[in-house]
Design brief:
The protein is mainly alpha-helical. The chain folds into two domains: about 90 residues, DNA polymerase, domain 1 (Orthogonal Bundle); about 200 residues, Intergrase catalytic core (hpI Integrase, Chain A, Orthogonal Bundle). It has 15 helices and four strands. It has a four-stranded mixed β-sheet. A hairpin with a 5-residue loop joins strand 3 and strand 4. Helix 1 runs antiparallel to helix 2, helix 2 packs across helix 4 and helix 7 packs across helix 12. Forms a cyclic heterotetrameric complex composed of two molecules of XerC and two molecules of XerD. Belongs to the 'phage' integrase family. XerC subfamily. It is found in: Cytoplasm. InterPro entries: CB, DNA_brk_join_enz, Integrase-like_cat_sf, Integrase_catalytic, Integrase_recombinase_N, Integrase_SAM-like_N, Recomb_XerC, Tyrosine_recombinase_XerC/XerD.
């Protein structure tokens, strides 16, 4: 369970709009007008900046400090006070961004008056690091409910066969969305086009080019291979007679015969998850997380999971061990007669 502090304003925190006495000083008002007229910021963004400036104005007032006399140390004290009063890391990061932007804009004006700032007092101040959240993964049962679709529909609709092949492959191989949509039927190279990723069906593998230009081969499970074969049989029904080389080579096609877009994959997966009655929104990366979590639960081989996911650093992969521990802890609570923690 996270120990992060709730992102709220407790009773003793500065109140942004508490009274007319807290009206913003002229420099702050002028900056907001600049953002509105010159930068075309939205009303929602301006309201947020105005709120953050009120916090700075009231904190400076309590410390009896003019705005142009606030130092880096004062800013750090203000942030520490807000954090102690319940402001979360993400909220404080937004606060510091507003304060930093104000001083950056105000500094040239003060230079013209002959009272320059020694430096931006917010420079170098960072919000406390937000705790890294656990990736969202489906249970094995939820994944089966998602992928075990009615066979009658799959037998007749090319788009349904395509979707089944895509989502079986995402879960089978832990691909990123960009890697999935970038796959070709096979390696293709011509004067106009060269494949970045491709299917090797007979070897039951896909070759992908991941982040940082790192290439890897990932195995494809038998269920995904079977789904891919059915889609390849139906693919000509969506393929146009002529197309651009990139579309002609694509493994997965959209309704108009072009390479499928990431947005279509997202929408189709969300729709299928809703049809399956899953209680959570499912996006393509959830299947990648589920792949990693389930393989790690079964094999305990962190290095293998790292290679299949294409993580450059094993610390990125290690977050899935926390998911695995949660799974084990839940099983312990439910099964051990002396656990004493059953809900």
């Amino acid at each position: 369970m996270s120990n992060a502090k709730p992102d709220v304003n407790p009773p003793d925190a500065p109140q942004a709009e508490s009274s007319s006495a807290s009206a913003l000083p002229d420099p702050m008002c002028a900056w907001l007008r600049h953002l509105e007229t010159n930068r075309r910021y939205s009303p929602h963004t301006l309201d947020g900046y105005r709120r953050e400036l009120h916090f700075l104005h009231e904190l400076a007032g309590r410390a009896r400090l003019p705005l142009d006399k606030i130092s880096n140390g004062h800013i750090r004290q203000f942030v520490a006070r807000l954090h102690a009063q319940g402001r979360g890391p993400r909220s404080l990061a937004r606060t510091l961004a507003a304060w930093r932007g104000f001083y950056q804009w105000w500094a040239p004006a003060l230079e013209l008056t002959g009272t320059p700032l020694a430096g931006n007092p917010v420079a170098g101040v960072r919000a406390p690091k937000a705790p890294r959240g656990l990736p969202k993964a489906l249970s094995v049962e939820q994944t089966q409910a998602l992928l075990d679709r009615p066979p009658a529909r799959l037998a007749t609709e090319p788009a349904a066969l395509r979707d089944q092949a895509m989502f079986e492959l995402l879960y089978s191989s832990g691909l990123r969305l960009s890697e999935l949509v970038g796959l070709d039927l096979r390696y293709t190279r011509s004067a106009d086009y060269e494949s970045r990723g491709w299917l090797k069906l007979e070897e039951a593998e896909v070759e992908v080019l991941g982040k940082g230009g790192k290439r890897r081969s990932v195995p494809v499970g038998q269920t995904a291979v079977a789904a891919l074969r059915k889609w390849l049989d139906a693919r000509p029904q969506l393929a146009p007679a002529t197309s651009q080389p990139e579309d002609a080579a694509a493994l997965f096609l959209g309704a108009r015969g072009r390479r499928i877009s990431p947005r279509v994959v997202q929408l189709q997966l969300a729709h299928i998850a809703q049809e399956a009655g899953l209680p959570t929104h499912v996006h393509p990366h959830v299947l990648r997380h589920s792949f990693a979590s389930h393989v790690l639960q079964s094999t305990q081989d962190l290095r293998a999971v790292q290679e299949m996911l294409g993580h450059a650093n094993i610390s990125t992969t290690q977050i899935y061990t926390r998911l695995d521990f949660q799974h084990l802890a839940k099983a312990y609570d439910q099964a051990h007669p002396r656990a004493g923690r059953k809900s």
